[in-house]
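Honest question from a wet-lab person: if I give you the sequences of every part of a complex, can you actually get the arrangement of the whole thing, not just the pieces? Trying it with mine:
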Amino acid sequence: MDETWLPTLRTETPQEGYALSIKLARVAVKMTQADPAIRDDLCALYEKDADALIAVSSVVATHFQTVAAANDYWRDK
Amino acid sequence: MDETWLPTLRTETPQEGYALSIKLARVAVKMTQADPAIRDDLCALYEKDADALIAVSSVVATHFQTVAAANDYWRDK
Amino acid sequence: MDETWLPTLRTETPQEGYALSIKLARVAVKMTQADPAIRDDLCALYEKDADALIAVSSVVATHFQTVAAANDYWRDK
Amino acid sequence: MDETWLPTLRTETPQEGYALSIKLARVAVKMTQADPAIRDDLCALYEKDADALIAVSSVVATHFQTVAAANDYWRDK
Amino acid sequence: MDETWLPTLRTETPQEGYALSIKLARVAVKMTQADPAIRDDLCALYEKDADALIAVSSVVATHFQTVAAANDYWRDK
Amino acid sequence: MDETWLPTLRTETPQEGYALSIKLARVAVKMTQADPAIRDDLCALYEKDADALIAVSSVVATHFQTVAAANDYWRDK
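Yes, you can. This is the full assembly:
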Protein backbone atom coordinates (compact mmCIF):
# COMPACT_ATOMS: atom_id res chain seq x y z
CA MET A 1 0.00 0.00 0.00
CA ASP A 2 2.98 2.30 -0.47
CA GLU A 3 1.96 3.66 -3.84
CA THR A 4 -0.47 6.55 -4.19
CA TRP A 5 -4.02 5.26 -4.35
CA LEU A 6 -5.90 8.35 -3.15
CA PRO A 7 -4.44 11.50 -4.72
CA THR A 8 -7.69 13.46 -4.46
CA LEU A 9 -11.33 13.27 -3.37
CA ARG A 10 -12.49 15.22 -6.45
CA THR A 11 -14.34 13.34 -9.16
CA GLU A 12 -16.00 14.50 -12.35
CA THR A 13 -19.46 13.10 -11.58
CA PRO A 14 -21.52 11.79 -8.63
CA GLN A 15 -21.27 8.33 -10.14
CA GLU A 16 -17.47 8.42 -10.09
CA GLY A 17 -17.72 9.70 -6.54
CA TYR A 18 -19.82 6.70 -5.65
CA ALA A 19 -17.24 4.36 -7.19
CA LEU A 20 -14.55 6.09 -5.13
CA SER A 21 -16.65 5.53 -1.99
CA ILE A 22 -16.72 1.78 -2.66
CA LYS A 23 -12.95 1.85 -3.02
CA LEU A 24 -12.59 3.74 0.27
CA ALA A 25 -14.75 1.13 2.02
CA ARG A 26 -12.61 -1.72 0.70
CA VAL A 27 -9.22 -0.26 1.51
CA ALA A 28 -9.83 -0.34 5.26
CA VAL A 29 -10.45 -4.08 5.08
CA LYS A 30 -7.30 -4.51 2.99
CA MET A 31 -5.22 -2.56 5.50
CA THR A 32 -6.62 -4.42 8.51
CA GLN A 33 -6.19 -7.89 7.03
CA ALA A 34 -2.90 -8.07 5.13
CA ASP A 35 -3.08 -11.74 4.10
CA PRO A 36 -4.75 -11.91 0.64
CA ALA A 37 -5.78 -15.59 1.07
CA ILE A 38 -7.79 -14.83 4.21
CA ARG A 39 -9.24 -11.76 2.53
CA ASP A 40 -10.44 -13.89 -0.38
CA ASP A 41 -12.11 -16.34 2.00
CA LEU A 42 -13.81 -13.46 3.76
CA CYS A 43 -15.01 -12.00 0.49
CA ALA A 44 -16.50 -15.29 -0.68
CA LEU A 45 -18.23 -15.53 2.68
CA TYR A 46 -19.72 -12.10 3.03
CA GLU A 47 -20.83 -11.84 -0.57
CA LYS A 48 -23.46 -14.47 0.24
CA ASP A 49 -24.47 -12.91 3.53
CA ALA A 50 -27.22 -10.29 3.38
CA ASP A 51 -26.24 -8.70 6.70
CA ALA A 52 -22.64 -8.23 5.60
CA LEU A 53 -23.69 -6.80 2.25
CA ILE A 54 -25.90 -4.25 4.00
CA ALA A 55 -23.09 -3.41 6.43
CA VAL A 56 -20.72 -2.78 3.52
CA SER A 57 -23.41 -0.66 1.92
CA SER A 58 -23.53 1.40 5.12
CA VAL A 59 -19.79 2.07 5.02
CA VAL A 60 -20.09 3.08 1.36
CA ALA A 61 -22.85 5.52 2.36
CA THR A 62 -20.64 7.15 4.99
CA HIS A 63 -17.77 7.56 2.53
CA PHE A 64 -20.16 8.89 -0.10
CA GLN A 65 -21.13 11.67 2.35
CA THR A 66 -17.48 12.67 2.56
CA VAL A 67 -16.81 12.46 -1.17
CA ALA A 68 -20.01 14.34 -2.02
CA ALA A 69 -19.11 17.16 0.39
CA ALA A 70 -15.58 17.27 -1.05
CA ASN A 71 -17.09 17.85 -4.46
CA ASP A 72 -19.66 20.39 -3.28
CA TYR A 73 -22.24 17.83 -4.28
CA TRP A 74 -21.30 18.35 -7.95
CA ARG A 75 -23.60 21.37 -7.87
CA ASP A 76 -21.93 23.08 -10.83
CA LYS A 77 -22.73 20.22 -13.21
CA MET B 1 -22.97 -0.91 -14.39
CA ASP B 2 -21.18 0.94 -17.18
CA GLU B 3 -24.07 3.13 -18.15
CA THR B 4 -24.81 6.38 -16.34
CA TRP B 5 -27.10 5.77 -13.40
CA LEU B 6 -26.22 8.78 -11.22
CA PRO B 7 -25.90 11.91 -13.34
CA THR B 8 -26.79 14.27 -10.48
CA LEU B 9 -27.80 14.42 -6.82
CA ARG B 10 -30.36 17.16 -7.51
CA THR B 11 -34.03 16.26 -7.35
CA GLU B 12 -37.16 18.34 -7.66
CA THR B 13 -38.67 17.37 -4.31
CA PRO B 14 -37.68 15.78 -0.98
CA GLN B 15 -39.73 12.74 -1.93
CA GLU B 16 -37.73 12.21 -5.13
CA GLY B 17 -34.61 12.70 -3.04
CA TYR B 18 -35.76 9.94 -0.74
CA ALA B 19 -36.35 7.62 -3.71
CA LEU B 20 -32.83 8.40 -4.93
CA SER B 21 -31.49 7.50 -1.46
CA ILE B 22 -33.10 4.07 -1.69
CA LYS B 23 -31.46 3.61 -5.08
CA LEU B 24 -28.07 4.63 -3.68
CA ALA B 25 -28.45 2.07 -0.87
CA ARG B 26 -29.23 -0.70 -3.33
CA VAL B 27 -26.45 -0.02 -5.79
CA ALA B 28 -23.72 -0.84 -3.27
CA VAL B 29 -25.21 -4.31 -2.79
CA LYS B 30 -25.42 -4.74 -6.57
CA MET B 31 -21.79 -3.75 -7.03
CA THR B 32 -20.54 -5.99 -4.21
CA GLN B 33 -22.48 -9.06 -5.31
CA ALA B 34 -22.41 -9.34 -9.10
CA ASP B 35 -24.34 -12.62 -9.43
CA PRO B 36 -28.07 -11.75 -9.86
CA ALA B 37 -29.24 -15.20 -8.70
CA ILE B 38 -27.49 -14.86 -5.35
CA ARG B 39 -28.74 -11.27 -5.06
CA ASP B 40 -32.31 -12.50 -5.56
CA ASP B 41 -31.87 -15.11 -2.84
CA LEU B 42 -30.49 -12.48 -0.51
CA CYS B 43 -33.38 -10.14 -1.25
CA ALA B 44 -35.98 -12.82 -0.56
CA LEU B 45 -34.19 -13.52 2.68
CA TYR B 46 -33.72 -10.07 4.10
CA GLU B 47 -37.16 -8.85 3.12
CA LYS B 48 -38.56 -11.15 5.80
CA ASP B 49 -35.96 -10.24 8.39
CA ALA B 50 -36.76 -7.25 10.60
CA ASP B 51 -33.13 -6.59 11.50
CA ALA B 52 -32.07 -6.48 7.87
CA LEU B 53 -34.95 -4.19 6.96
CA ILE B 54 -33.95 -1.77 9.72
CA ALA B 55 -30.32 -1.95 8.61
CA VAL B 56 -31.32 -1.07 5.05
CA SER B 57 -33.42 1.75 6.44
CA SER B 58 -30.29 3.04 8.21
CA VAL B 59 -28.30 3.10 4.98
CA VAL B 60 -31.15 4.95 3.28
CA ALA B 61 -31.08 7.50 6.11
CA THR B 62 -27.36 8.14 5.60
CA HIS B 63 -27.80 8.63 1.86
CA PHE B 64 -30.80 10.87 2.47
CA GLN B 65 -28.53 13.15 4.54
CA THR B 66 -26.23 13.50 1.54
CA VAL B 67 -29.01 14.01 -0.99
CA ALA B 68 -30.82 16.52 1.24
CA ALA B 69 -27.62 18.54 1.69
CA ALA B 70 -26.97 18.41 -2.06
CA ASN B 71 -30.37 19.98 -2.59
CA ASP B 72 -30.01 22.57 0.18
CA TYR B 73 -32.85 20.74 1.87
CA TRP B 74 -35.20 21.91 -0.89
CA ARG B 75 -35.49 25.18 1.04
CA ASP B 76 -36.54 27.21 -1.97
CA LYS B 77 -39.66 25.12 -2.55
CA MET C 1 -46.65 5.08 -2.59
CA ASP C 2 -47.51 7.19 -5.62
CA GLU C 3 -49.14 9.98 -3.70
CA THR C 4 -47.12 12.82 -2.20
CA TRP C 5 -46.06 11.94 1.34
CA LEU C 6 -43.01 14.20 1.70
CA PRO C 7 -43.72 17.64 0.26
CA THR C 8 -41.18 19.39 2.50
CA LEU C 9 -38.67 18.88 5.30
CA ARG C 10 -39.78 22.08 7.06
CA THR C 11 -41.76 21.76 10.27
CA GLU C 12 -43.03 24.33 12.73
CA THR C 13 -41.32 22.86 15.80
CA PRO C 14 -38.53 20.44 16.75
CA GLN C 15 -41.19 18.05 18.02
CA GLU C 16 -42.92 17.95 14.64
CA GLY C 17 -39.49 17.45 13.10
CA TYR C 18 -38.96 14.47 15.35
CA ALA C 19 -42.31 13.00 14.29
CA LEU C 20 -41.30 13.46 10.66
CA SER C 21 -38.04 11.61 11.37
CA ILE C 22 -39.98 8.62 12.66
CA LYS C 23 -42.05 8.68 9.47
CA LEU C 24 -38.89 8.81 7.34
CA ALA C 25 -37.49 5.79 9.19
CA ARG C 26 -40.65 3.79 8.59
CA VAL C 27 -41.08 4.55 4.91
CA ALA C 28 -37.85 2.78 3.93
CA VAL C 29 -39.16 -0.43 5.51
CA LYS C 30 -42.47 0.04 3.70
CA MET C 31 -40.75 0.50 0.36
CA THR C 32 -38.41 -2.47 0.82
CA GLN C 33 -41.13 -4.86 1.94
CA ALA C 34 -44.27 -4.28 -0.12
CA ASP C 35 -46.43 -7.06 1.38
CA PRO C 36 -48.42 -5.55 4.30
CA ALA C 37 -49.01 -8.96 5.96
CA ILE C 38 -45.28 -9.65 6.25
CA ARG C 39 -44.71 -6.06 7.41
CA ASP C 40 -47.26 -6.56 10.19
CA ASP C 41 -45.53 -9.76 11.31
CA LEU C 42 -42.21 -7.97 11.35
CA CYS C 43 -43.61 -5.09 13.36
CA ALA C 44 -45.09 -7.40 15.97
CA LEU C 45 -41.73 -9.10 16.19
CA TYR C 46 -39.39 -6.16 16.50
CA GLU C 47 -41.62 -4.23 18.86
CA LYS C 48 -40.75 -6.83 21.50
CA ASP C 49 -37.08 -6.93 20.66
CA ALA C 50 -34.87 -4.41 22.47
CA ASP C 51 -32.11 -4.58 19.85
CA ALA C 52 -34.52 -3.82 17.03
CA LEU C 53 -36.10 -0.96 18.97
CA ILE C 54 -32.68 0.59 19.53
CA ALA C 55 -31.78 0.09 15.87
CA VAL C 56 -34.96 1.88 14.81
CA SER C 57 -34.11 4.62 17.29
CA SER C 58 -30.74 4.98 15.57
CA VAL C 59 -32.35 5.45 12.16
CA VAL C 60 -34.70 8.05 13.65
CA ALA C 61 -31.64 9.87 15.04
CA THR C 62 -30.00 10.01 11.62
CA HIS C 63 -33.15 11.38 9.99
CA PHE C 64 -33.56 13.88 12.83
CA GLN C 65 -30.11 15.25 11.96
CA THR C 66 -31.30 15.89 8.41
CA VAL C 67 -34.64 17.39 9.41
CA ALA C 68 -33.05 19.58 12.10
CA ALA C 69 -30.49 20.93 9.60
CA ALA C 70 -33.26 21.54 7.06
CA ASN C 71 -35.01 23.70 9.65
CA ASP C 72 -31.85 25.52 10.77
CA TYR C 73 -32.41 23.82 14.10
CA TRP C 74 -35.54 25.93 14.63
CA ARG C 75 -33.21 28.69 15.84
CA ASP C 76 -35.65 31.49 15.13
CA LYS C 77 -38.27 30.08 17.51
CA MET D 1 -47.30 11.89 23.61
CA ASP D 2 -49.63 14.73 22.70
CA GLU D 3 -48.17 17.27 25.08
CA THR D 4 -45.14 19.35 24.13
CA TRP D 5 -41.96 17.55 25.12
CA LEU D 6 -39.51 19.17 22.71
CA PRO D 7 -40.11 22.91 22.48
CA THR D 8 -36.51 23.70 21.50
CA LEU D 9 -33.08 22.19 20.87
CA ARG D 10 -31.34 25.07 22.70
CA THR D 11 -29.81 24.37 26.07
CA GLU D 12 -27.74 26.48 28.43
CA THR D 13 -24.75 24.14 28.63
CA PRO D 14 -23.22 21.16 26.81
CA GLN D 15 -24.17 19.00 29.76
CA GLU D 16 -27.83 19.92 29.45
CA GLY D 17 -27.51 19.24 25.73
CA TYR D 18 -26.21 15.79 26.53
CA ALA D 19 -29.16 15.13 28.83
CA LEU D 20 -31.50 16.23 26.03
CA SER D 21 -29.76 13.76 23.68
CA ILE D 22 -30.51 10.90 26.06
CA LYS D 23 -34.13 11.99 26.11
CA LEU D 24 -34.25 12.10 22.32
CA ALA D 25 -32.85 8.56 22.17
CA ARG D 26 -35.49 7.27 24.55
CA VAL D 27 -38.49 8.88 22.94
CA ALA D 28 -38.12 6.88 19.72
CA VAL D 29 -38.39 3.66 21.72
CA LYS D 30 -41.42 5.03 23.53
CA MET D 31 -43.14 5.95 20.29
CA THR D 32 -42.39 2.62 18.59
CA GLN D 33 -43.52 0.48 21.53
CA ALA D 34 -46.64 1.98 23.07
CA ASP D 35 -47.27 -0.69 25.73
CA PRO D 36 -45.49 0.45 28.94
CA ALA D 37 -45.36 -3.10 30.39
CA ILE D 38 -43.40 -4.41 27.40
CA ARG D 39 -41.20 -1.30 27.48
CA ASP D 40 -40.35 -2.00 31.12
CA ASP D 41 -39.43 -5.59 30.32
CA LEU D 42 -37.23 -4.40 27.49
CA CYS D 43 -35.51 -1.87 29.71
CA ALA D 44 -34.76 -4.43 32.39
CA LEU D 45 -33.33 -6.66 29.70
CA TYR D 46 -31.09 -4.26 27.86
CA GLU D 47 -29.76 -2.58 30.95
CA LYS D 48 -27.87 -5.79 31.67
CA ASP D 49 -26.71 -6.29 28.10
CA ALA D 50 -23.44 -4.63 27.15
CA ASP D 51 -24.22 -4.62 23.43
CA ALA D 52 -27.54 -2.90 23.95
CA LEU D 53 -25.98 -0.32 26.27
CA ILE D 54 -23.36 0.50 23.65
CA ALA D 55 -26.04 0.68 20.95
CA VAL D 56 -28.03 3.15 23.07
CA SER D 57 -24.84 5.12 23.61
CA SER D 58 -24.43 5.30 19.83
CA VAL D 59 -27.90 6.76 19.38
CA VAL D 60 -27.18 9.31 22.11
CA ALA D 61 -23.99 10.27 20.23
CA THR D 62 -25.92 10.90 17.02
CA HIS D 63 -28.47 13.07 18.81
CA PHE D 64 -25.69 14.92 20.62
CA GLN D 65 -24.26 15.89 17.20
CA THR D 66 -27.59 17.46 16.32
CA VAL D 67 -28.07 19.21 19.66
CA ALA D 68 -24.48 20.49 19.70
CA ALA D 69 -24.85 21.92 16.19
CA ALA D 70 -28.17 23.52 17.19
CA ASN D 71 -26.36 25.30 20.01
CA ASP D 72 -23.36 26.31 17.89
CA TYR D 73 -21.37 24.02 20.15
CA TRP D 74 -21.95 26.45 23.06
CA ARG D 75 -19.02 28.47 21.69
CA ASP D 76 -20.10 31.72 23.30
CA LYS D 77 -19.87 30.26 26.81
CA MET E 1 -24.33 12.78 38.00
CA ASP E 2 -25.47 16.07 39.51
CA GLU E 3 -22.09 17.78 39.46
CA THR E 4 -20.78 19.51 36.33
CA TRP E 5 -18.89 17.04 34.18
CA LEU E 6 -19.18 18.76 30.80
CA PRO E 7 -18.63 22.50 31.13
CA THR E 8 -17.41 22.91 27.55
CA LEU E 9 -16.60 21.06 24.33
CA ARG E 10 -13.44 23.13 23.77
CA THR E 11 -10.10 21.45 24.28
CA GLU E 12 -6.55 22.65 23.74
CA THR E 13 -5.51 19.89 21.35
CA PRO E 14 -7.03 17.19 19.12
CA GLN E 15 -5.67 14.59 21.53
CA GLU E 16 -7.55 16.13 24.46
CA GLY E 17 -10.60 16.25 22.22
CA TYR E 18 -10.24 12.55 21.60
CA ALA E 19 -10.03 11.87 25.34
CA LEU E 20 -13.20 13.91 25.82
CA SER E 21 -14.92 11.79 23.15
CA ILE E 22 -14.12 8.63 25.09
CA LYS E 23 -15.62 10.24 28.17
CA LEU E 24 -18.77 11.20 26.25
CA ALA E 25 -19.14 7.61 25.04
CA ARG E 26 -18.88 6.25 28.57
CA VAL E 27 -21.27 8.63 30.24
CA ALA E 28 -24.27 7.37 28.27
CA VAL E 29 -23.64 3.86 29.60
CA LYS E 30 -23.29 5.25 33.12
CA MET E 31 -26.58 7.13 32.85
CA THR E 32 -28.50 4.18 31.38
CA GLN E 33 -27.25 1.66 33.93
CA ALA E 34 -27.12 3.26 37.37
CA ASP E 35 -25.98 0.19 39.34
CA PRO E 36 -22.13 0.29 39.52
CA ALA E 37 -21.86 -3.48 40.22
CA ILE E 38 -23.69 -4.38 37.03
CA ARG E 39 -21.66 -1.78 35.13
CA ASP E 40 -18.44 -3.40 36.34
CA ASP E 41 -19.62 -6.82 35.19
CA LEU E 42 -20.49 -5.38 31.83
CA CYS E 43 -17.12 -3.70 31.51
CA ALA E 44 -15.24 -6.89 32.33
CA LEU E 45 -17.34 -8.64 29.72
CA TYR E 46 -17.08 -6.26 26.81
CA GLU E 47 -13.41 -5.57 27.29
CA LYS E 48 -12.75 -9.12 26.11
CA ASP E 49 -15.22 -8.96 23.25
CA ALA E 50 -13.88 -7.66 19.93
CA ASP E 51 -17.32 -6.71 18.63
CA ALA E 52 -18.10 -4.64 21.70
CA LEU E 53 -14.72 -2.91 21.56
CA ILE E 54 -15.31 -1.96 17.93
CA ALA E 55 -18.82 -0.77 18.77
CA VAL E 56 -17.44 1.46 21.53
CA SER E 57 -14.84 2.72 19.08
CA SER E 58 -17.67 3.67 16.73
CA VAL E 59 -19.40 5.72 19.41
CA VAL E 60 -16.11 7.45 20.20
CA ALA E 61 -15.75 8.28 16.48
CA THR E 62 -19.18 9.91 16.40
CA HIS E 63 -18.43 12.01 19.48
CA PHE E 64 -15.04 12.94 18.05
CA GLN E 65 -16.84 14.41 15.02
CA THR E 66 -18.83 16.64 17.35
CA VAL E 67 -15.86 17.67 19.48
CA ALA E 68 -13.65 18.32 16.43
CA ALA E 69 -16.33 20.54 14.88
CA ALA E 70 -16.77 22.37 18.19
CA ASN E 71 -13.07 23.18 18.12
CA ASP E 72 -13.00 24.13 14.43
CA TYR E 73 -10.74 21.13 14.00
CA TRP E 74 -8.01 22.91 16.00
CA ARG E 75 -7.10 24.69 12.77
CA ASP E 76 -5.43 27.61 14.49
CA LYS E 77 -2.81 25.39 16.18
CA MET F 1 -0.72 6.87 26.21
CA ASP F 2 0.79 9.90 27.88
CA GLU F 3 2.93 10.99 24.97
CA THR F 4 1.54 13.12 22.17
CA TRP F 5 0.08 10.92 19.45
CA LEU F 6 -2.37 13.37 17.86
CA PRO F 7 -0.81 16.82 17.52
CA THR F 8 -2.99 17.82 14.57
CA LEU F 9 -5.71 16.61 12.21
CA ARG F 10 -4.01 18.22 9.19
CA THR F 11 -2.35 15.97 6.66
CA GLU F 12 -0.66 16.69 3.35
CA THR F 13 -2.85 14.39 1.24
CA PRO F 14 -6.18 12.52 1.40
CA GLN F 15 -4.23 9.28 1.56
CA GLU F 16 -2.36 10.41 4.69
CA GLY F 17 -5.70 11.50 6.08
CA TYR F 18 -7.05 8.02 5.52
CA ALA F 19 -4.06 6.50 7.32
CA LEU F 20 -4.72 8.86 10.24
CA SER F 21 -8.34 7.69 10.31
CA ILE F 22 -7.22 4.09 10.72
CA LYS F 23 -5.00 5.19 13.60
CA LEU F 24 -7.92 7.03 15.23
CA ALA F 25 -10.08 3.90 14.97
CA ARG F 26 -7.42 1.77 16.64
CA VAL F 27 -6.63 4.07 19.52
CA ALA F 28 -10.11 3.76 21.03
CA VAL F 29 -9.66 -0.01 21.26
CA LYS F 30 -6.24 0.49 22.82
CA MET F 31 -7.62 2.88 25.42
CA THR F 32 -10.59 0.67 26.30
CA GLN F 33 -8.58 -2.52 26.65
CA ALA F 34 -5.28 -1.77 28.39
CA ASP F 35 -3.93 -5.34 28.52
CA PRO F 36 -1.80 -5.89 25.37
CA ALA F 37 -2.11 -9.71 25.57
CA ILE F 38 -5.91 -9.58 25.41
CA ARG F 39 -5.70 -6.98 22.65
CA ASP F 40 -3.51 -9.33 20.59
CA ASP F 41 -5.98 -12.16 21.04
CA LEU F 42 -8.79 -9.89 19.96
CA CYS F 43 -6.88 -8.74 16.91
CA ALA F 44 -6.11 -12.29 15.80
CA LEU F 45 -9.79 -13.06 16.20
CA TYR F 46 -11.39 -10.17 14.38
CA GLU F 47 -8.93 -10.17 11.52
CA LYS F 48 -10.53 -13.43 10.39
CA ASP F 49 -14.08 -12.27 10.95
CA ALA F 50 -15.77 -10.50 8.04
CA ASP F 51 -18.33 -8.75 10.26
CA ALA F 52 -15.65 -7.31 12.51
CA LEU F 53 -13.57 -6.16 9.54
CA ILE F 54 -16.57 -4.34 8.10
CA ALA F 55 -17.34 -2.80 11.49
CA VAL F 56 -13.77 -1.51 11.75
CA SER F 57 -14.11 -0.17 8.23
CA SER F 58 -17.21 1.71 9.37
CA VAL F 59 -15.34 3.38 12.23
CA VAL F 60 -12.55 4.35 9.82
CA ALA F 61 -15.19 5.91 7.55
CA THR F 62 -16.55 8.04 10.40
CA HIS F 63 -13.07 9.26 11.34
CA PHE F 64 -12.27 9.94 7.69
CA GLN F 65 -15.28 12.30 7.59
CA THR F 66 -13.76 14.26 10.46
CA VAL F 67 -10.23 14.30 9.07
CA ALA F 68 -11.43 15.25 5.57
CA ALA F 69 -13.45 18.16 6.99
CA ALA F 70 -10.47 19.26 9.08
CA ASN F 71 -8.43 19.47 5.89
CA ASP F 72 -11.15 21.19 3.86
CA TYR F 73 -11.19 18.04 1.77
CA TRP F 74 -7.69 18.88 0.49
CA ARG F 75 -9.41 21.15 -2.03
CA ASP F 76 -6.34 23.34 -2.57
CA LYS F 77 -4.22 20.41 -3.83
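Two things worth pointing out. The radius of gyration of chain C is 14 Å. Chains C and E do not touch (no CB pair under 8 Å).
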